[in-house]
Design a protein that fits this description.
Blueprint lengths: L3 E2 L6 H16 L7 E2 L28 E5 L8 E4 L5 E4 L7 H10 L4 E6 L5 H4 L2 H7 L1 E7 L3 E2 L2 H12 L4 E3 L4 E6 L2 E7 L14 E6 L2 E5 L5 H10 L7 E3 L11 H7 L3 E4 L12 H6 L4 E4 H4 L2 E5 L4 E5 L42 E5 L5 E4 L13 E3 L2 H6 L3 E2 L3
Parallel strand pairs: 1-8, 5-6, 6-7, 7-9, 13-14, 14-15, 15-16, 20-22
Antiparallel strand pairs: 2-10, 3-4, 3-17, 4-5, 10-11, 11-12, 12-13, 17-18, 19-20, 19-21
Helix pairs in contact: 2-4, 4-5
Organism: Desulfallas thermosapovorans DSM 6562
Protein name: Competence protein ComEC
Keywords: Signal
């Protein structure tokens, strides 16, 4: 059974449901090479196969895994360039992001998207997907078994049908890739009916050698609890923080199980939702956090053992700019004066040192490194210049 939202009267919603039924039915045909291992050998009580991914193997690994968290504002789009020279795209931004994503992927040398994942049918995740489908050769498409009657969703279905593609159902237990040291597993959704569309989100764990990435879409606490109860390993070096940093995701128990070294929040500057919420940022203390609103496009490169990170804020390679995707800029020294006479406050890694905090009254206040309250406040955001903080709606601390 499909969960439907945004219902409309008349025949059109029925036709949409019928169309997606056909697409999903075709996607489950015997010619698909993706593996559902819920009924496979050596499984635990939740149906997940016991694996040893992420453990040192002693094998010599060949190739790099590159993961690009694109800066597409208050939306998600993640390019995963696999060491076997295949490409995976997880989500495709909002409706206005399609051309930006196409340009970025083209600049990264992508000609074919072997695995295209729409984590769930919200516009800020699949809005640009129809444009992507029209501009690239597509291998397999994965989406959760849920429908909606929005025009955005209809456009994606139309593009899929136009290209003669099928939809593979994204559900817990599906192996997208199972190739020795390279694994891509779908960990959620585990259920079939949810009140909240976000909990249908396809959660994917990609592992190369000893390094794992966990991509969570907009999965909220209910989905997180189900994953924890399933017994599957959630540990990952890099976590894509759920739902743009909302307090409804990234629960303490889930975060404790993942134990990430790095976390990435895909979020738009000055968004209307207050993302990322301060509760989430507080839970992420001790984790190296990157944010697309502050850092631009964030690119991780790993050989299966070591991890390197570059950011693209105001650097060549950020979406809509020229240059090599993920290219690093020259480091900025703290206290230096930028060409526009702005004084810059950054650490040795080039990350901002000005703390943005929301107080108990909901006021947005920023604290300079020499502020008497600097060490006692918890940052919701970091800024490199006072102008940047003011533009985000923060005011200087009084006194």
């Amino acid at each position: 059974m499909y969960k439907k939202s945004n219902r409309k009267k008349g025949l059109w919603p029925v036709l949409i449901v019928c169309a997606i039924l056909l697409l999903f039915a075709a996607g489950c045909s015997s010619d698909t090479k993706s593996t559902d291992f819920l009924s496979g050998p050596e499984t635990n009580n939740s149906g997940f196969e016991r694996t040893t991914e992420g453990q040192p193997s002693g094998e010599v690994l060949s190739g790099q895994l590159k993961v690009h968290f694109l800066d597409v504002g208050q939306a998600d789009s993640i390019l995963v360039q696999l060491p076997n020279n295949q490409n995976m795209l997880i989500d495709a931004g909002d409706n206005d992001d399609g051309d930006t994503i196409v340009d970025y992927l083209t600049g990264a040398g992508v000609e074919k998207i072997d695995y295209l994942v729409g984590t769930h049918p919200h516009a800020d995740h699949i809005g640009g997907m129809d444009t992507v489908i029209k501009n690239f050769t597509i291998g397999r498409v994965y989406m959760p078994r849920v429908t909606t009657t929005t025009k955005t969703f209809e456009d994606v279905l139309a593009a899929i049908e136009y290209k003669g593609l099928n939809i593979n159902t994204a559900k817990a237990g599906l192996k997208i890739i199972d190739d020795g040291n390279l694994q891509a597993l779908i960990l959620a959704p585990l259920g079939t009916e949810y009140e909240e569309m976000n909990n249908y989100s396809a959660v994917i764990k990609v592992t190369w050698g000893e390094v794992s990435f966990l991509f969570t879409g907009d999965a909220e606490e209910q989905s997180e609890r189900e994953m924890l109860a399933s017994g599957v390993s959630l540990q990952a070096n890099v976590l894509k923080v759920g739902h743009h940093g909302s307090h409804s995701s990234t629960s303490a128990a889930f975060l404790q199980s993942v134990e990430p070294q790095y976390a990435v929040i895909c979020v738009g500057a000055g968004n209307d939702y207050g993302h990322p919420h301060r509760e989430t940022m507080a839970r992420l203390q001790g984790v190296n956090v990157f944010r697309t609103d502050l850092d631009g496009t964030v690119v991780f490169v790993t050989d299966g053992r070591e991890i390197n990170v570059t950011t693209g804020k105001n650097k060549p390679g950020a979406p809509g700019q020229t240059g090599e995707p993920g290219a690093a800029a020259e480091p900025i020294k703290s206290g230096a004066v930028a060409p526009n006479n702005e004084r810059v406050y950054v650490d040795d890694g080039g990350r901002g040192l000005i703390k943005g905090n929301i107080n108990s009254k909901g006021e947005k206040i920023y604290h300079m490194p020499d502020s008497p309250y600097y060490d006692s406040v918890k940052p919701e955001r970091w800024f490199k210049t006072e102008k940047e903080a003011l533009a985000a709606g923060f005011r200087p601390v009084k006194g």
